[in-house]
Each structure stands twice: as C-alpha cells, then as structure tokens.
Amino acid sequence: MENFLRSSDNKWLRHRLSFVAYFVTSAFALLFLRLFYLQIIEGDEYRQLSENNCIRLQNIDYPRGIIFDRNGILLVDNRPSFNLSLLLNKAKPVESTINNLSRYINVPAEELISQINTIKGLSCYKPVLLKQDIGRNILAAVEAHKYNIPGVLVDVKPKRFYPQGNRAAHLIGYLSEISSTELKYEKYCENKPGDYIGKFGIEKAFEKYLMGKTGNRQIEVNSVGQVIRVLNTIGAEAGDNIYLTIDTRVQKKAEELLAGKAGAVVAMDPSSGEILAMASSPSYDPNLFVSGMTHDEWENLISHPHRPIENKAIKGTYPPASTYKIVTAIAGLEEHIIDVNTSFFCPGYMPYGNRNYMCWKKGGHGRVNVVRALAESCDVFFYNVGLRLGADKLEKYAKVSGLGSPTGIDLEQEGTGLIPSTKWKKKRFGSPWSAGENLSVAIGQGYNLVTPIQMLVLISEIANGGEKIKPLVVKKIMTPDGKLIMESKPEKLGRVPVSQDTINIIKEGLFDVVNKNFGTAYWSRPGSGIEMSGKTGTAQVVGRKQDESNYDKKEVPYACKPHAWFVCYAPSIDPKIAISVVIEHGGHGASSAAPIAKELVKTYLNPENEENQNSSNEPAELANIYDEY
User: Fold this and answer.
1) Active-site residue numbers?
2) Range list for CATH 3.90.1310.10 in the chain
C-alpha cells in the first residue's frame, strides 16, 4: 500500500512538473516569437521610431542675400523669426499641454487644435507648426513655462525684412511662399514646400544669387523634446549681396514728390545706363507679403483703381503726347522734310479735311521753325511735319529710338507699348490708314503708347549724343565675405541712326523749353547754376470741346484730366542725369510733371543746397501760362 501511494505521488508530481515545463516553454516560445517579430520583421520601423524619440534632423535655413543701394545704404535685410511647433508624441497629455500653451501665448485652445487638425498626413513624430513669427514676448512666456508644456518647440529662422518699408518697393519686389506649381520647375529644384522665394522685382530677377543653401544639424532631445546636444552640423550658406544702381537720396525724393499722386518717375545716368531712381505711385509695403496679410488687405491691393502693385515705370503704358514731338522732329530732319530754317505759320489751328485741328495755344504761335516749335510745343508745326512724313516713317524713327519695344532692363513684366503703322492698322482693324491720323500720331496722340522707361531711353539718347543704352538696375554682386562676383558695365546697344547735326538741333530746342521765357517748362528751371533741357507733354485721355482750356479746374472729373509728362536731362552740357516723369490725370506737363523733375535734378546735382529756395524762379502756379494741350 505504501509503495502504491508513493507511486501515485510521483505520477502527480511528474504531471505537475510537465505542466509547468510546458507552460514555461510556451511562454518563452511566445516571447521569442514576439521578439523575432519586433526585431526582425518590424525591426527597421521600430528602430527608426526609437531613434526619432531621441535623435532629430533639423533644417538650418539660409540667410537670404542682403540688398543695398549704390552707396551701401541698407535696403533689404533679414531678421530672426521665432516659430512655435508641437511634437505630439512628447506633448502628453496633449489636451493639458494645449490648454497650458493657450494661456501662456494668449491664443484660444480651439485655434491651436484647429491648426493641428488642418495638417494632412499628421505624424506624431514630426513637429506641427502652430504659429509663425511669435515675437519676443511670447517667446519669453514659452521659455518661462517650458516644463508645463512638454513637446512645444521654438525654432529660429531668418525672415526677410524691408527696414525702409515701401522705399523702392516696385524695384526691389517681394517674397512669398513657393507654390506647388513652382516647385515643379527645374530652377526651384532645391526648394521645398514652405520656402519663400522672390515673386517680383529684383527679388525674383536675381533669385539665383540671393538664394543661399539650406544646412542641417542632427540633435539629441530628451523626453519633452528639449535639445540635449548637437551631434552633427552642416552649416547653411548665405545668399550673395546685391548693390543696386539707385541713389537712395534721389529715390526718397522721387517718392516724396509722387505722394498722393498716381504715376511714375524713373531717372538714369545717360552715359552708363545706371538707374538712379525708380518710383511708382501708389506703393505698398513688401513686409506685408512676408508677414502675411488678411484677405481684405490683399483685395484692397489688387482692386485699388490706381494699381499699387503695378510698377508703372516699366509696365504702365500711356500716350506720349508732346514728348513724342522729339521723334517727329528727328524724322522730319532725317528725311529732309524740314531743316533748321523751315518754318510754318501757326494761327492756333490747322484746317484739314472738314475740320480744324487745334493748337494748344488758342491765339497761335505765329511763324516758328523746328527749334522754336519744340520750345513752345507748337502743335501746328508738327501737324505739318507729320502730314508730310506719314505713319510709316514716324514708326521707323520711333522704333529705332526704342519706343514700342522693351528696353531689356533686368526686370520682368516690362511693358511693350505700341507704335502704329499703316500695316498694323490694317491687320488690327481691317481698315486703311487715313491721312488725317498722321496729324494725331505726330503729336503723340492717336494709337501711340509708350512706357516711362522707354521715354527715358529716348531722352538719354539725345543727352549722350545718340547712343542707345540698356538700363541697368544692379551695380555689383558680392559674396557675404566680400568677394566680387559681378560688376555691371554700360551695355551700349549701338548708335541710333540719326546724324549729329539732327541731335544738335533737337538739343537746342530742348534747351529752350526750359531756359527761354517762351519755353513751356521755363518756370521749372533748377537754378543754382544748373541748366536743364527737356520736353513737356499733356496726353489727353478723352475728347474735349474746342473751347475747353483748363483741365486743372476742380469741376473737371479726375478721370477726364490728361496725363502729365516731362522728360529731361541735366546739366544741358555733359549730362549726368536723365529723368522721365508721368502723372496720371495730372493735368498739364509743365505744372504737374516738370516741377518733380526739377527737384530731382537739384537733389542729385546739388544735394547740399537742395532745400534752398530758387529765388530766380517764379511761383509754380505761373507755369499754367505755358501749359500745353
């Protein structure tokens, strides 16, 4: 019996031990299988997740190249921008972290949550951008409470900054976030979503120089996402610095003189082609495009009747009015229709066909030659010349002078303008050119359209003796450490096919415009020993009654007033500056545009006395006596 009991106990023990062994073996087998699954099958994924828990790769954004004026005055810079992000896998509990952050930065928690929910393909291991450019006060609050907001990160990135606001905004341009379409272009192959690129002006035209190279660094972070140490760094490379040709003094003066007006001013050295000022009014603050603007702000910009986004200096097209008489005079002299002694009598009108074509001076100018006709802007003289020339010969000399085609300036969106011909009208309207139309185009009306910079090129050709020259906006480009990459040189495009004798006759007439008491711009003499030569113009935009003589009257609607023109160069001998001014619906060229050019000439050529009054000049309102229609 005793042996039987002992045998039973052994069987029971062996049975229990077998069960325990089976259980332990099964447990280890399951553990082994789980480890095999995690380490072998899913090992790569979990290894990456593990590394992401402690090691992160951060991009280091490059500082964009800085922009200066010709004298080294800062126009465009970069400033630090603090961006607030959240790592969801570190921000636990997320709701508590969001609520705490909301209190510290004074932003509703619902807004922060909404920002997170808008991101597609959200990953808990990648930072979610909550707010850009938070400012130093919010930064201080975040840093002071960082232990209460785990997973909240602050990244410092360079942000474009325009310290002078809208100074030269149309020339410099602005930045904006790269679009998905632009990312497909080869020239943007090194960019990524969220990058800011040049969208207009110098910022766009010279993007390849201004854009630097992104760097990166490998960092180790702790459980709340704070940086413990930097493991490796590949530094970012800054963009190249650009020195523009503009003179900030002249640019500032031009913008001050345009304040409250719609129009453009562009000034150039006629011997080198360097643009000294380019102003378009009204203007805008390019900082808005970098910092972000509301929908209403954007709508106000693009729907404004005076087109503040448009660079009117290179894109705006206007009838050239009496400034075009320079071309008519050149064509008449070169085609031997007239010479310096040829004269026509002006009684105040010219009968042609079944109507009278009026001169701007109701009583007429009497008998005038080409020099006097330029000085007094006699319409009747140029009616006669235009009638004898015809549209095609006028077109020939206008186009060889640079009108009706882009100047080649290194800026996008340059306007073309229009110089009509008999062939053009037949193609455009299907009707032949009428002889009476020669009268209108000869004084810069009719179908003629030009840009201010085209007129600047024309007047510069007269100033420099007949050389056609490309306008330049960049003086030099340098690396951040001061190495010269590029320095601009005058780009002469060949001599205009006009004789020196013709140019001398034109110069004499333009001199008299400003310096003789019968000249239309006599009251805009710069004084201080500076002699200026130029040509006024008043471009009608609607028809008018023959007895209507004063577009400056307040009862005349703004949209019915003509555009005011003035082109000039100074000094008259050995010119240093050429200027083109157009004021939209400004009235008369002599009273609205010429005084602006006068002040710019004084600013550039005689800066130490630019604030002084010119006692030899009469009050500005007297200029109306010589206003031309």
Assistant:
1) 322
2) 57-244
What would the 3-class secondary structure string for 325-338 be?
Answer: HHHHHHHHHHCCCC
CATH number for the domain whose boundaries are 248-295+317-626 = 3.40.710.10
- Cβ partners under 8 Å of residue 123, min gap 6: none
Dist. CA 66–CA 78, nearest whole Å: 7
Mean pLDDT taken over the chain: 84
- If DSSP states are collapsed to H, E and C, what string results for 85-98? EECCCCCCCHHHHH
Residue that the structure tokens 């130029």 belong to: 534
Residue 197: φ, ψ to 5° = -130, 165
H or E element at residue 140: helix 136-144
Domain limits, CATH 3.40.710.10, in the chain: 248-295+317-626
Q: Contacts for 47-52 with beta carbons within 8 Å, 24 or more apart?
A: 49/125, 52/125
On the question of pLDDT at 416 being above 70, the answer is yes
Contact 382, 360 (CB under 8 A): no
According to the model, what pLDDT value does residue 46 have? Answer: 58
Mean pLDDT of 570-590: 94
Measured N-to-C along each axis, helices 391-400 and 325-334 cross at an angle, to the nearest 10 degrees, of: 110
Separation between Cα atoms, residue 522 and residue 590, nearest integer Å: 9
Distances (CA, A) of 529 to 399, 532, 606: 35, 10, 10
As a three-state string, the secondary structure of 540-606 is CCCCCCCCCCCCCCCCCCHHHCCEEEEEEEECCCCCCEEEEEEECCCCCHHHHHHHHHHHHHHHHHC
Q: Do the Cβ atoms of 369 and 399 come closer than 8 Å?
A: no
pLDDT for residue 131: 73
**What's the number of CA atoms in the CB half-sphere (13 Å) around residue 130?**
26
Query: 449 pairs with which residues across the strands?
Result: 418
Percent of the chain's residues with pLDDT above 90: 55
Query: Binning pLDDT at 50, 70 and 90, where does residue 298 land?
Result: confident
Class of domain 57-244: alpha beta
Residues in the chain: 629
Q: How far apart are CA 284 and CA 307, in angstroms?
A: 10
